[in-house]
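W.,

You were right to be curious about this one. When I first looked at the sequence I had no strong expectations either way, so I just let the prediction run and decided to look at it fresh. Below is the sequence, 502 residues in total, followed by the output.
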Amino acid sequence: MLALATIATISTPVLTTSCSDDDTVTTERNWSTDGGLNAADNLLFNDSVIGNGDNEFVFNGTQTLKKGTYLLKGWVYIADGATLTIEPGTIIKGDKQTMASLIVERGGKLIAKGTASEPIVFTSEQAKGSRKPGDWGGIIICGKASHNAGEAQIEGGPRTKHGGSVDTDNSGVLSYVRIEFAGYPFATDQEINGLTLGSVGSGTQIDHVQVSYSNDDSFEWFGGTVNAKYLVAYNGWDDDFDTDNGYSGTVQYGLVVRNSKIADKSQSNGFESDNDASGSTATPVTSATFSNITFIGPKAVDANFVNSSSYITGGDYYPNNGSGLGRFQAAMQIRRGSCLNCVNSVAMGYPIGLMLDGEKGNTQAQAKAGKITLQNIWFADVEAVGSDANKYYGDYLVTGYDSIKNPIIDSTQTSFSSTFFRAQAGNQVTTISALNLTGSSRYPGLTTNFMPQSSSPMIGAASFTAVSGRGFDEDVNYIGAFSANDTWMDGWTNFDPNNTDY
């Protein structure tokens, strides 16, 4: 793509097109700081439309999107050096026909800072009652922080690369934001997640973000050092929190709620964590720390749940877009050399609690060496406390793999994963009824209690003594994402987005 000179003195948008060597047509816009665009302004060819759908559309310069309702068309990039600010209360609808996506490139910034009473909402353009996972692409943020391959192409198809050596890099703010019905499948295994974070640095602010009905993972980190608080993954298709390629940030306070009819063909997990796809020892090693997470699995939301293809049909949310359905697997799958850490968390109603998968990489060796901290975690009503192999549901020891990569089982011993889990400080296996939960009636659309009552044994059970390198997370005394009568989800979350008037 040919570079365009920045036009710093123009107070109205200027459109220029250029062609790269591969004949990709890119529309670029250079703006000055002019007080912002209103919803009625002409952003491209139509009022209230961002992008053109047919070609790449690139923001350059500095601009504010005034509070209003907009249609996002095609792949829209925030270029290196550009800043796009979105005002609280703004609604941006992703166009299905053009697979709309918003992509922040290295050096670009997105300032999407809503409020509890006026969140910023990215959602489907489809009519109320007919929205489905994968109605549009999603949001991608790329930065210059560490990645264990040095530099990488972002997942999902966009042109954008990420990775570098600036761990304090700042890609902007994402606060009080909802992302709904994203994850259009451009090709097999080429879906954009609800929120994709590629090598995003710790200078970036991420808090109070809800991803609902994503057609792939709800949140995925590829390397980076960014921290986050108050995340909600609601009724996603694949994994809820996916960490790869040396992600080393801290995440505190997260709620996961699953739809018992939606699981991916790759097997859906709460955590899925790799060091990299091959399980190498590339550094930095994936070593993020999650604390105070509440996972509500399929059996906890549906007493009739059966983990089979005859039951997991997508229900009313099957998008008929090529996405494959499968089964639910583990609350926590840690594999391929990852050293993911988790403390003070609860998972209920999953087929498997913990899977330390040893097929590729040295995750089990890392656990034995004390490089994985999994403490003060409570599993409630899980069918198997542990499993040692992907797509294997038995709580038996896996001693190796045969020539076609089938696990070799010793059924006289429990799994390494189960043994490791039970040996860690503060971990418990219990029942949902013993947790004394409440809270679902406060949020229309939620049907499962998730918040401890003041009498719950989860109150007073937390400990942070095993967590090293602290500074971002807070000391609290409870297991899971909530104290009794907690209010951090009030006002900005939405658990019935398909029936919301936008």
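Here's what jumped out at me. Residues 1-46 have pLDDT under 50 and may be disordered. And, maybe more interesting for your project: DSSP finds three helices and 33 strands in the chain.

Coffee later to discuss?

I.
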